[in-house]
Write a structure and sequence with these properties.
- Strands 1, 2, 3, 4, 5, 6, 7, 8, 9 and 10 form a ten-stranded mixed sheet that branches.
- The termini are far apart.
- This protein is α/β, with parallel strands linked by helices and 475 residues long.
- The chain has two domains: 149 residues, DNAb Helicase, Chain A (Orthogonal Bundle); 269 residues, Rossmann fold, CATH 3.40.50.300.
- It is 46% helix and 12% strand.
- The N terminus and C terminus are likely disordered.
Length: 475
């Protein structure tokens, strides 16, 4: 290549130049929206839940919209006369352009037919403006002493993710409105044949108790070592992704992705897990079933992460990206005690409490159920009765407090010689929004597969009690 002919990389935009540019806005849409309301004030209720005064870029438009909302709130008809009078009372009439500008707004749109489309455009631009501001703050903070890198990255991601969440605005609302929303939902449910409103687990009796795993719930699954916590959870998330068509994410801090997939293949193909450890002795029929199972698994939306020593901040960042990119509706973590807090604490109990609190916050932030596997304390081994209770959750009472549902897996005969076909009791020990009770299961260790035991009178899933919200954490 001749001297001096090297291609230079494109010049990067100077952040100061970016911030100096006119921010994105939709002045025409703002005018059309205000004009539509002036033409027909019945258009305002159609857009009030979509647009606020702060969404308008032009200051005059912001003032006009605020005056319109004020008139509507007082039950006064919105037209050029009443609007002008209100603006005069506020000392804003001349600043917005007076009668000439109000007449111009009316001329922009002769009818209000497209008011909702215009509202959507007005709503979209401030989100982009907030994104620009959020990114500029992250850039600015990057030049300062940002401290712990994981915490900084988590904060940066959360700042930008919050902008995305603003597309689905929530706000303080009068209970009348919420009651109406709930009744609308109840009416729709009553007319539907669906009995599962959340993510199906693949275990009908558990679904009968929970109506599926509900959005924003933290579900703790605990049990003694080797009872089958990982296998049960893999069965559950695989069923949710295949039969339930729910994109899922499984975070394993203990096993590799390959080990997990071998377990799933064993369960799905009906081939003993020990055969898949070496692949020796696999028959032609085994290979056929493996290929069929692999084909089914390849078509489901399931994401597996085997990052070791994952911090809470790293987990939240990964889950946010999966939610945005793939719309995941269920997260499982194996297991809670192997996670690391974002910062150091003076006790293990406080570390676990911080992790538990963050998992609940994550479930609520992303509006999806989060399953966290947990160990039991050693105290359960010292008791005559090995059936677990809430106090057995290891290292922190905060786990019990933060959890919406606590499920125990209990081996009913731990001394059983044949460990491949065991009777396991699934105990719903806490259920913030519904009944507690138990479900008899059978664990076939040879195929790492759980199934429901044959129904018996009074065994299932029937509520033994209702767990009311506790004072410390009522929701």
């Amino acid at each position: 290549m001749p001297r001096g002919s090297e291609r230079k990389p494109p010049a990067k935009a100077d952040p100061r130049e970016v911030l100096a540019r006119v921010p994105p806005h939709a002045e025409d849409a703002e005018q059309a929206l205000l004009g539509a309301i002036l033409v027909d004030d019945k258009a305002l209720p159609l857009v009030q839940d979509v647009v606020t005064a702060d969404d308008f870029y032009v200051e005059a438009h912001r003032a006009i919209y605020e005056a319109m909302v004020d008139l509507s709130g007082r039950g006064v008809t919105i037209d050029a006369v009443t609007l002008a009078e209100t603006l005069k009372q506020r000392g804003q009439y001349d600043r917005v352009g007076g009668a000439a500008y109000l007449d111009r707004l009316i001329d922009v749109v002769p009818v209000s037919a497209h008011v909702e489309e215009h509202a959507g455009l007005v709503r979209e631009k401030p989100i982009v403006r907030r994104l620009i501001l959020a990114c500029s703050r992250v850039v600015s903070d990057s030049f300062e002493d940002y401290g712990d890198l994981d915490s900084f990255l988590d904060g940066a991601e959360q700042t930008i993710f919050e902008v995305s969440r603003q597309r689905y605005r929530t706000e303080t609302a009068h209970i009348r409105r919420t009651v109406k929303e709930v009744f609308t939902e109840l009416d729709a449910l009553s007319q539907s044949s669906k009995e599962i409103t959340g993510v199906p687990t693949g275990f009908p009796r558990l679904d009968a108790m929970t109506a599926g795993l509900q959005a924003s719930d933290l579900i703790i699954l605990a049990g003694r070592p080797s009872v089958g916590k990982t296998s049960f959870t893999l069965n559950l998330v695989t069923s949710a992704a295949s039969a339930g068509k729910t994109p899922v994410a499984f975070f394993s801090l203990e096993m590799s992705r390959q080990q997990l997939v071998r377990r799933i293949l064993s369960s799905e193909a009906g081939i003993p897990a020990n055969k898949l450890r070496t692949a020796h002795g696999l028959s032609q029929d085994d290979w056929t079933r493996l290929f069929m199972a692999a084909d089914r698994l390849s078509k489901i939306e399931m994401y597996v992460d085997d990052s070791p020593l994952l911090t809470v901040a790293q987990l939240r960042g990964k889950v946010r990206r999966l939610k945005l990119q793939h719309g995941i509706g269920l997260v499982a973590i194996d297991y809670l005690q192997l996670m690391r807090p974002t910062r150091s604490f003076d006790s293990r109990e406080r570390e676990i409490a911080e992790i538990s609190r963050n998992l609940k916050a994550l479930a609520k932030e992303l509006d999806l159920p989060v399953i966290a596997l947990s160990q039991l304390s050693r105290d359960v081994e010292k008791r005559q009765d090995k059936r677990p209770v809430l106090a057995d959750l290891r290292e922190s009472g905060a786990i019990e407090q933060d959890a919406d549902i606590v499920i125990f897996l209990h081996d009913q005969n731990p001394q059983q010689v044949d460990r491949t076909h065991r009777q396991v009791e699934l105990i719903v020990a806490k259920h913030r929004s519904g009944p507690t009770g138990s479900v008899p299961l059978v664990f076939d260790g040879e195929y790492t597969r759980f199934s429901q035991a044959a129904a018996q009178d009074g065994d299932i899933g029937i509520a033994t009690e209702f767990t009311p919200p506790d004072d410390a954490n009522p929701f």
